[in-house]
Specification:
Blueprint: H1 5-9, H2 17-30, H3 33-51, H4 56-63, E1 66-71, E2 74-79, H5 80-105, H6 112-137, H7 155-163, H8 171-195, H9 202-220, H10 226-243, H11 249-257, H12 266-283, H13 294-310, H14 313-337, H15 347-351, H16 354-380, H17 392-401, H18 406-416, H19 420-454, E3 457-463, H20 474-486, H21 490-502, E4 505-511, H22 523-540, H23 544-556, H24 564-574, H25 577-593
Antiparallel strand pairs: 1-2, 3-4
Helix pairs in contact: 3-7, 3-14, 5-8, 5-11, 5-14, 6-8, 6-16, 7-8, 8-17, 9-10, 10-11, 12-13, 16-17, 16-19, 17-19, 18-19, 22-23, 23-24, 24-25
């Protein structure tokens, strides 16, 4: 497990504890799927409100403002809207590419048998919406080209909705949906590159290929600094932009060239870092201010410099990009692209448009239908199986969430339709379908979660390698860690340790009982819950000697009342013999009431 906040705080001086706590909360906030989805939703709502007020014209004028650089009388630039859609969204695609590369390298897409279910489901989730869209638009040359709009799932919104359910949903649902969304993104990237670019300029494509070859050479020659990749990546973006292929594809190409390995020999580093720590310990002088300890500072700087390079460049870049993309770029994209205006528009024509129904039903019906049918086919053929603890109702809920197509769908709509009216109609279909799919998917999974809660089941998942990625459910993993810290059941702890040895993301199902606290409501369950709580409190208070005695008493007096073992141990420590005898009398009474040999009712009480 990752280090706990309490352990982490001990690394810092008392004067900065509050700063560290605030910083830790900020990091958790900016790596939250739920918060990211909320930020995008808020931006979309603001865009919808503004688009239907008198401020809409000024709003549009602002995003059409030209920005750029002057060279004498020359000017190179683009509008703010194009900066967001062409430059910022290329950064978003860079992050998508890094996540795809992770999944292909060490994630869910490495094991073809594990990945087969979400990959096949993703194919079904693309083909079915295309079929539904073309059923409405195939005969109309003006709208038929929009078939790509309802094909992509918005991973941020879908996982953000799923994160609201926490550990009440099996981790397999989360992994299935995130892997499906990644496979979906790969298909969407190919669709954009092949079908939704302008007529490509072959000379610029040739230059882009040369730049890409340079990036590959950099990777092959073990260049691990990020700055050269980003600088050459900017050149690649410009070449792709000038070629007529959509510039965002440059972000994906760049992602696949950034090294995912470490320049540091990990085995040697473990020995070297241990030596450096011992060297720093011997060089440290407690009575001397740190600033005056040259040898100590030099040793620590060496350790810090090399330790930073242990983390692969792809991982470093992904972690840095995540908060900027999900709390900056995507909300900006929503703000500039979710502006469906009904002012001066023939609403009747919009509501009767085949584009609206092709997009709406493609996402809301086609995505879940395709995902479920293809999933059933691959499971029934025994080529793959459902994830652990996942049933078909979970799969249906996840499939419906696949119909949340906000970001990528709007992006494709902007590319697919030259007419602004058709773009607005497609956006209306996207927003309506995403809202309905999000609500329906959440409600269905919530009903499954309620059923699991009635059975007393929670799903605890975490990462054996201390890397809990957003796509693996970072928030659910944090909840699981907090709950696992409070559980002292040896059987559960053994299961956790066994699962951790298997590597990767693991999950166990824990019986929390109908109340969410106890197993099944029996005396034995109450006794176990009391033991867990007492052990937790004594451990927090640092009473390790007493902790051992309490645990021994629990083992020796397994059939006695829940509190007897605890109180008896505590009273022995205090020498209160009278109360000790009373507790023993309580034990006899309970045995008698349960049908065993009870005490004599006429015997005087102490």
């Amino acid at each position: 497990m990752a280090s706990t906040p309490a352990k982490e705080q001990k690394l810092f001086i008392n004067e900065v504890q509050r700063h560290q706590a605030r910083y830790r909360k900020l990091i958790q906030f900016t790596h939250s799927s739920t918060k990211a989805a909320g930020a995008m939703l808020l931006a979309a709502v603001v865009a919808l409100i503004v688009a239907n007020t008198g401020a809409y014209e000024a709003f549009l004028d602002f995003w059409h403002t030209e920005v750029g650089v002057f060279f004498g009388d020359g000017f190179a630039g683009m509008s703010l809207g194009h900066v967001i859609n062409d430059i910022f969204m290329a950064i978003f695609f860079l992050l998508v590419g890094l996540e795809v590369k992770y999944e292909l390298t060490v994630g869910e897409l490495t094991n073809i048998r594990q990945a087969l279910l979400p990959i096949v489901a993703a194919v079904g989730g693309v083909l079915a919406p295309i079929g539904i869209y073309l059923a409405f638009n195939a005969t109309n040359p003006e709208t038929a080209h929009g078939w790509g709009v309802p094909t992509a799932t918005d991973i941020a919104f879908a996982l953000g909705i799923l994160a609201l359910l926490g550990n009440r949903v099996p981790n397999g649902v989360r992994v299935f949906l995130s892997t499906l969304a990644v496979a979906d993104d790969i298909i969407a990237i190919l669709v954009i590159a092949i079908f939704y670019g302008h007529s490509p300029s072959l000379p610029w494509l040739a230059v882009a290929a040369v730049v890409l070859f340079v990036l590959v050479l950099m990777n092959r020659n073990h260049i691990y600094s990020l700055i050269p990749y980003l600088l050459v990546g900017a050149v690649l973006w410009y070449c792709v932009y000038m070629s007529g292929v959509h510039a965002t594809i440059a972000g994906v190409l760049l992602a696949f060239t950034i090294p995912s390995g470490s320049r540091v020999n990990i085995k040697s580093f473990l020995t070297w870092s241990g030596d450096k720590v011992r060297e720093a310990r011997s060089a440290y002088q407690p009575e001397t201010p740190v600033i005056a300890q040259g040898g100590y500072i030099e040793t620590v700087q060496d350790l810090s410099r090399v330790a930073r390079q242990v983390v692969p460049p792809a991982t470093r870049l992904e972690h840095r990009l995540y908060p900027w993309v999900y709390f900056g770029i995507l909300p900006l994209f929503a703000l500039t692209n979710a502006d469906v205006s009904f002012l001066g528009v023939d609403v009747g024509a919009m509501l009767s448009s085949p584009v609206l129904y092709g997009v709406l039903l493609g996402l809301l019906v086609g995505k879940p239908l395709g995902i479920m049918l293809f999933s059933m086919a691959v499971v029934k053929s025994k080529l793959a199986s459902l994830p652990e603890n996942v049933n078909w109702f979970h799969m249906l809920g996840a499939s419906i969430l696949g119909g949340v197509g906000f970001t990528m769908a709007i992006f494709v709509a902007n590319l697919a339709f030259p007419d602004e009216g058709l773009v607005a109609t497609a956006k209306l279909g996207i927003l309506a379908a995403s809202l309905l799919a999000g609500v329906l998917g959440f409600v269905l999974l919530l009903l499954q979660a309620k059923a699991a809660q009635k059975r007393g089941v929670a799903y605890l998942s975490s990462s054996a390698d201390d890397i809990t990625r957003q796509t693996a459910g970072d928030e659910a993993a944090r909840e699981a860690e907090e709950l696992l810290r409070d559980l002292e059941d040896p059987a559960i702890k053994d299961e956790v340790e066994a699962a951790k040895k298997r590597g990767g993301v693991f999950e166990i199902a824990v019986d929390l009982g109908p109340t969410g606290l106890l197993g099944g409501g029996s005396i034995g369950d109450v006794r176990e819950a009391v033991r867990n709580e007492v052990v937790r409190v004594l451990r927090e208070e640092g009473k390790d000697d007493l902790l051992e005695k309490v645990q021994e008493e629990f083992k020796e007096h397994a059939g006695e009342p829940p509190l007897a073992s605890v109180e008896e141990t505590l009273l022995r420590e205090r020498g209160e013999d009278a109360l000790l005898r009373a507790i023993r009398r309580e034990s006899d009474d309970v045995v008698g009431m349960s049908g065993g040999k009870g005490g004599d009712e006429d015997e005087p009480r102490d």
